[in-house]
Specification:
Shape of chain A: elongated
Number of strands of chain C: 28
Number of domains of chain A: 3
Strand content of chain A: 5-15%
Number of domains of chain C: 4
Oligomer: heterotrimer
Radius of gyration of chain A: 27 Å
Mean pLDDT of chain A: 85
Shape of chain C: globular
Low-confidence stretches of chain A: 1-8
Low-confidence stretches of chain C: 760-768
CATH topology of the largest domain in chain C: Rossmann fold
Distance between the termini of chain C: 68 Å
Structural class of chain C: alpha/beta
CATH architecture of the largest domain in chain C: 3-Layer(aba) Sandwich
Largest sheet of chain C: 7 strands, mixed
Number of helices of chain C: 25
Largest sheet of chain A: 3 strands, antiparallel
Mean pLDDT of chain C: 94
CATH class of the largest domain in chain C: Alpha Beta
Structural class of chain A: mainly alpha
Strand order of the largest sheet of chain C: 5-4-18-17-16-6-7
Order of helices and strands of chain A: EHHHHHHEEEHHHHHHHEEHHEH
Strand content of chain C: 15-25%
Distance between the termini of chain A: 36 Å
Largest interface: A-B, 99 and 106 residues
Number of helices of chain A: 16
Helix content of chain C: 25-40%
Chains: A mainly alpha (394), B alpha/beta (213), C alpha/beta (768)
Number of strands of chain A: 7
Helix content of chain A: 55-70%
Chain lengths: 394, 213, 768
């Protein structure tokens, strides 16, 4: 079943994001012109690819900027940089720089958190991620004319690499390096196809996945990746073993799949690639929160999050149009429901329902005040980890 | 497939015996097998055996989804607020801290919020959720309005809750007595009123004291 | 007395608690692999029932590659309609378990865990040789059999037949001795029949529900829904318990009774009923005998005296009497709380007197029942594994019954042994050297019998002990031979639920390794003994067919029940004496016919009338004194079952309560200086026990509670008293004198050493 987005209480204005999109697209355009030496190294046959990437750049920048305007994203964006750049804190700014590198490797490059969800799922994701990255790293410079190969004038067996218009190193065209380099996209497609196969298998057989997945959100991206990889491989097969049989047709087919993928990039599931780095900001925010003053539950007194997070959320909720304020002005009582910890919220719910029943049927209620406790103290069914234990003071 | 519009989840925490059947059955559900999503707490074990089971209430305007910076929480057309999209969730904890019912759980190793999705793999196929299927006291009930009316003639469902100045309406309903006149359940009332609630101790109250004789 | 211990046994060292690396566990199991994989399509889904308590909820088991990998609610079974407690939900984890016995084992001190595997056939031969040797040297009664009520009715019948016919020993008894016998004896004395008088559906329309000594929420969780459903239609609920259990929290009137004084309360309430004229005189006149004697007896039970004795405030007693006295419909339930007493039968009779005086029985929504504790607590107590019993609820001492059953079995009545002794007495006879050999199945007396240090010593005195089980339970660790039996899901047969409903257990998977169905093992033993005749059944169905014949004409008449009928009707309530009879959900309906009264009346006596019995109060065998000033009571937890052989091996259940504890009231805790969660030591005249304190206001301040599911150092039954009811022989688990203090540093260290909090190593998650 397809999801419906909840109605945002205040739609952010889109003028700014459009401007950001234009700026980013123009910047990329300028870089293409500069990097290809005024299009000298630009391959006209690839112009459609170039324009689709330019469009994707506009779309992604626009969407990213829109995304940052949402109150919760906005506060994480600002707070993320604030806590990262602040003086002091554990390890200092240098320590956080090292932390950034560590998190980037662990989260973004190695996808450790996905392996923690499920090992096979982690493998699936890493295969697709690195397949795509490899392909992008090879094709984008070629398409933009930032990378070109020329036969060395004096030695036809030697290739000279031109990077951003500057001649770089040369290598023999029949070397092992050449074989790996020129077949880079083949290796990339192998990685992607393996990953797509694993992902498809999961989506086909798992009941939980089956209940929630939708075609556009979950299958289309896999189909696109598969189509791009397969048509690319067929091109290679055509010129390597079949004397270019149906090469033109395949080239158009490949171009169509790639261009569609790029045009769709800002709108569909692939946008998560650009959202994911926010996770690192969250990590810094949480670290800073742990060092700062805790918010103590107004009912049971347990510290359950940082005062900073609590205050930020109160502001975010206000901007979103929620009003969880409680009788402001009366002393000795919380001014905001946000200051009540999650277990006490559940206890209050039970108390409210029980109070409704009191006098109607027998049984007694407990006066609220004490700390609720998980009925099942075992780690397996109780708090799911450190953060959960903090939230639930387990 | 959507969850049928006439099927609803009814909660009656007063019935709960804290047996853990919901917790154990929850971890057998195919959407999150091995991890239990339902919340079950002793309200104050030192003084009472009272327990409270809380499933996701599936708000019409879910605070958790609104405060999510990553757009990871979606409410489907059938009114079910789905658990975090795995591709998007960045484990920021906003939803956990903002949910007025205290429902979501944070699985930090996996960098993922997880919460009750009304056993979507079951309810979207016309089956009852795991917890409501097994609940021995039927504090958790899933079915039609006609069924609950026939089974609980003294009860009435409420789907509005007040937290301070905020009113939240939900797809999941809470059972209150027919005689309960309020349209909403005022969850934060004890935090607002100055009067201390007298807790009766039914054990000591009915205990024989030597002076009686 | 000559030293009865053979040299080979004297050198044994079975530690109180197994070492951490013991190969037989208990190791807690969690879902993993195929059981966590949400993409697995089960090969089949088998409709069956839960393997634990007497409610026998319907459940569906998912099977993949001959392994039970999960469950589905069984919505179509009328008793529970999909409902289950956590034990049923996670029971599948007992299968494919690392501790599962996959071969026969022979005692070997040098081997890890103290046992080495041997070939099954050799084990059977050796067991038979030892049994023959013992019986030839010391007489047939020197061999004893301990059986259990978690076995199917077919197996329970076979065990009785095996003991009485193949072994020809008097000494067979079963673990229902710790569970059902007080209620059984009381019901037989009052009604002439031992079965719940009503199906649970009669709870639903009752105006008043009286629950005495039954922790319904934890021990019979599904019954909670019946109670709540009745309340939703206006019923009031009275709960009598020393602890404010979850069902008591929500009741209308809670009577916090002093343990062991239940009959005083019943007598006091009857006193008030008589005083206020709340007696159904017409019913008493027409359908009962003995009321006047009882009325005379309860005259002395004034409210003031009742209050003093029971520890309940007098107004509460008066309120209860008024509600009970004036109700139009009612349902009274009780369980081990009143039955586990040295006057358990008197307690039960006191309860029945209240029911009879109200006249509210044998009609819709007017009911009475004991809540049977064990899976087949009902069926397992009807067909001959009780020490004085023959199939069909017949008496072993009754010549007519002997002649009939001997005829069915094809043997001479005089070859049937005479009645033997109860399960605890068997251990006393071991002490006296009268019993030399033991065969046990489905019974873990070292954990479940009181004063278990004595039981442990007696296990060491046996000449030969062979145990049948699927895990190496704590008692079996003292065995010479262990034969690998079957799990519930590996065999089929019938059981009879707490309601008296005969239901069908279906086989889901085959036994793994060398393990096999218990009835095969017993028949193999009979064959190896050369006493094969009568033990050549091809399967449980053939056993059931013989059981039908053997029970025909008895009170527990199964002759009209067939497996097909059970499946067709979703269970058949006995008695059911002919093929066209639908079964008897409700007993004692006016005008009903039964085999004893033959139309004279609805009760199972020749005159067809129910019996009032004078239920005299006597204090528990051991009452608090200056030295031991508190009362110790024991009981169950929702996540554990009986001696924990299965449930202590299921990780998610152990998670709920990883450890036993001492529950005490904050007033008492303050007085003794014991803090919540600190180590406390309880001492009785039998032994000492150090556990963590759980300080809660939901228990009487003069009483402490300890759950009994744990063995060794953590076993409360090392403290309990071996006093028994003179009629039912049930032990007094629910009341003995105890003293409590903060544990010393040494005791805390020792206790912490065996404390093994359950922790799942990491967080597996399917569908990432």
């Amino acid at each position: 079943m397809d999801p419906v987005t909840t109605t945002p209480r205040s739609a952010p204005r889109s003028a700014g994001p459009i401007a950001w999109g234009v700026v980013a697209t123009a910047a990329l355009g300028a870089l293409i012109v500069a990097g290809s030496r005024k299009l000298a190294h630009f391959d006209a046959a690839l112009v459609a690819y170039t324009f689709s990437v330019l469009f994707a750049t506009f779309g992604l920048t626009y969407r990213y900027a829109m995304w940052l305007k949402r109150p919760p994203t906005d506060f994480y964006w600002r707070r993320g940089w604030q806590v990262f750049l602040r003086r002091g804190g554990r390890g200092g700014r240098l320590g956080r720089l090292a932390g950034l590198a560590r998190h980037a490797v662990s989260d973004l490059a190695l996808n450790r958190f996905i392996f923690a969800r499920d090992r096979l799922r982690g493998l699936t994701h890493v295969l697709i991620l690195w397949g795509c990255l490899l392909a992008v790293a090879i094709t984008f410079p070629l398409v933009f004319g930032w990378l070109a190969f020329e036969s060395e004038p004096g030695d036809p067996g030697l290739y000279r690499v031109i990077v951003f218009g500057f001649p770089a190193f040369a290598f023999p065209s029949d070397s092992v390096l050449a074989f790996f380099l020129f077949h880079g996209l083949v290796w990339a497609s192998f990685l992607v196809i393996a990953g797509v196969m694993l992902a498809m298998r999961r989506r086909m057989r798992e009941e939980g996945a089956a209940a929630l997945q939708s075609f556009v959100e979950d299958f289309l991206p896999l189909i696109l990746l598969f189509a791009v990889s397969l048509t690319g491989l067929m091109l290679t097969a055509s010129y390597t073993w079949m004397h270019g049989y149906a090469y033109d047709f395949l080239a158009i087919l490949h171009a169509v799949t790639v261009i569609f993928t790029f045009l769709w990039l800002p709108f569909g599931k692939f946008f998560h690639v650009f959202q994911r780095p926010a996770q690192i900001a969250v990590r810094f925010y949480k670290e800073a929160g742990r060092e700062a003053e805790p918010e103590r539950c107004a009912r049971c007194g347990h510290g359950f999050t940082s005062k900073m997070h609590s205050e930020d959320l109160i502001e975010v909720e206000r901007r979103l149009g929620f009003d969880y304020r409680i009788d402001p002005g009366k002393a000795g009582r919380p001014d905001h429901y946000q200051r009540v910890c999650p277990p006490c919220r559940r206890a209050l719910l039970a108390a409210a329902q029980g109070a409704a029943w009191s006098g109607v049927r027998g049984g007694t209620l407990v006066a609220p005040g004490a700390a609720p406790a998980h009925v099942n103290p075992g780690l397996g069914e109780g708090p799911l980890g450190r953060a959960d234990a903090e939230n639930f003071h387990g | 497939m959507p969850v049928p519009a006439d099927r609803h989840f009814y909660l009656d925490p007063a019935r709960c015996i804290g047996c853990n059947a919901c917790v154990q059955a929850c971890s057998e559900c195919d959407t999150h097998k091995g991890v239990s999503m339902i919340q079950l707490d002793f309200v104050d074990r030192a003084r009472s055996t009272q327990t409270v089971p809380v499933v996701c209430m599936h708000c019409d305007q879910p605070t958790c989804a609104e405060v999510c910076p990553a757009d990871a929480i979606k409410r489907t057309e059938d009114g079910v607020v789905q658990t975090a999209r795995k591709a998007r969730c960045i484990a920021c904890n906003n939803c956990v801290l903002a949910c007025p019912f205290g429902v979501p759980k944070m699985h930090d190793e996996a960098n993922l919020m997880m919460k009750c999705d009304m056993c979507y793999d079951r309810t979207s196929r016309g089956l009852k959720p795991m917890c409501a299927s097994v609940c021995p006291s039927q504090a958790l009930f899933f079915g039609t309005r006609e069924e609950i009316e026939a089974l609980r003639p003294a009860s009435r469902p409420v789907d509005g809750f007040r937290f301070g100045a905020q009113v939240i309406t939900t797809r999941v309903r809470m059972l209150v007595p027919k005689s309960f006149a309020e349209p909403l359940l005022a969850v934060t009332a004890p935090l607002e009123s100055a009067a201390a609630v007298e807790a009766l101790d039914p054990l000591l109250a009915n205990l024989y004291q030597e002076s009686e004789s | 007395m000559a030293d009865p211990i053979p040299a080979s046994r004297r050198e044994r060292r079975t530690p109180l608690d197994p070492l951490p690396d013991d190969p037989f566990g208990p190791h807690p199991a969690w879902s993993a692999g195929v059981r966590l994989d949400t993409g697995v399509e089960p090969d089949r889904i088998v409709d069956t029932h839960c393997c634990f308590c007497g409610q026998q909820c319907g459940i569906r088991l998912k099977v993949k590659d001959e392994q039970v990998v999960g469950f589905e609610p069984r919505y179509d079974f009328p008793f529970n309609r999909g409902m289950l407690c956590p034990k049923g939900i996670k029971r599948y984890l007992q299968g494919a378990h690392p501790d599962r016995l996959l071969s026969a084992l022979e005692r070997d001190e040098a081997a890890p865990g103290g046992f080495r595997p041997i070939a099954y056939d050799r084990a059977i031969e050796r067991a038979a040789a030892e049994i023959r040797r013992i019986q030839e040297a010391h007489g047939r009664d020197a061999m004893a059999v301990l059986s259990g009520a978690s076995l199917t009715t077919e197996k329970a019948y076979l065990m009785g037949k095996f003991a009485h016919m193949a072994l020809a020993t008097s000494n067979i008894d079963y673990n229902g001795r710790l569970c059902m016998v007080s209620a059984g004896a009381g019901n037989t004395k009052a009604f002439g029949i031992d079965r719940a008088a009503n199906p649970w559906s009669d709870i639903l329309g009752a105006e008043l529900i009286w629950i005495s000594g039954a922790n319904v929420a934890e021990c019979a969780p599904i019954t909670t829904d019946y109670v709540w459903q009745a309340r939703e239609h206006g019923a009031k609920v009275i709960v009598v318990d020393p602890r404010l259990t979850p069902i008591a929290r929500t009741c209308d009137l809670f009577l916090p009774i002093r343990p062991g004084t239940d009959v005083a309360l019943f007598n006091g309430v009857l006193h008030l009923m008589i005083e206020h004229g709340w007696i159904d005189r017409e019913f008493v006149e027409r359908s009962t005998v003995g009321f006047d004697d009882v009325a005379r007896h309860v005259a002395e039970w004034t409210p003031a005296r009742t209050a003093r004795t029971t520890g309940i405030a007098e107004p509460a007693i008066r309120q209860a009497a008024e509600w009970w006295g004036t109700a139009k419909t009612s349902f009274l339930m009780h369980a081990r709380g009143i039955e586990h007493s040295s006057h358990g039968v008197a307690n039960v009779l006191g309860a029945i007197n209240l029911v009879l005086a109200s006249g509210r029985i044998g009609r819709e929504f007017c009911g009475y029942a004991t809540i049977t504790g064990q899976g087949n607590g009902q069926g397992g107590r009807e067909h001959g594994q009780k020490c004085d019993q023959l199939p069909g609820g017949r008496k072993l001492a009754d010549p007519e019954a002997r002649a009939y059953v001997a005829g069915v079995w094809g043997m001479a009545p005089e070859d049937l042994p005479q009645p033997g002794v109860d399960a605890y007495e068997i251990f006393r006879r071991i002490e006296r050297g009268e019993i030399k050999g033991l065969l046990s199945i489905c019974f873990n007396p070292l954990v479940s019998l009181p004063d278990s240090d004595f039981v442990r010593a007696m296990l060491g005195r046996l000449d030969f002990y062979v145990a049948i089980d699927f895990f190496l339970n704590e008692t079996a660790r003292h065995a010479d031979l262990v034969l690998p039996g079957s799990l519930h899901e590996e065999d089929e047969g019938t059981v009879t639920t707490a309601e008296g409903r005969v239901i069908k257990i279906n086989q889901a998977i085959e036994c793994p390794g060398e393990a096999r169905q218990d009835w095969r093992i017993v028949q193999d033993l009979a064959r190896a003994l050369g006493r094969e005749r009568g033990f050549t059944f091809a399967g449980p169905r053939e056993i059931f067919e013989e059981l039908r014949v053997a029970s025909k004409g008895g009170v527990a008449d199964y002759s009209g029940i067939s497996w097909e009928k059970v499946e067709r009707q979703q269970g058949v309530f006995w008695p059911c004496a002919s093929d066209d009879h639908p079964g008897t959900p409700r007993l004692f309906e006016p005008g009903s016919w039964n085999v004893v009264a033959k139309g004279a009346g609805p009760y199972y006596f020749p005159d067809g009338k129910a019996r009032f019995n004078v239920a005299a109060y006597a204090p528990p065998t051991e009452v608090p004194d200056a030295e031991y000033p508190l009362i110790l009571t024991s009981g169950r937890l929702i996540g554990q079952f009986l001696s924990g052989t299965q449930t202590r091996r299921i990780g998610p259940l152990l998670d709920m309560d990883p450890e036993p504890f001492i529950e005490l009231h904050p007033n008492l805790a303050e007085h003794l200086g014991i803090g919540d969660g600190t180590w406390a030591t309880a001492e009785t005249r039998r032994g000492r026990l150090t556990l963590r304190a759980r300080v809660v206001a939901t228990i009487r301040p003069d009483t402490i509670f300890v759950p009994y599911h744990w063995p060794g150092q953590r076993s409360v039954n090392r403290l309990t008293i071996a006093a028994q009811d003179p009629i039912s022989k049930i032990p007094e688990f629910k009341a003995c004198a105890v003293r409590l203090r903060p544990a010393t540093a040494e005791e805390s260290c020792a206790a912490a050493e065996v404390s093994t909090p359950s922790r799942r190593p990491s967080l597996p998650m399917a569908g990432g």
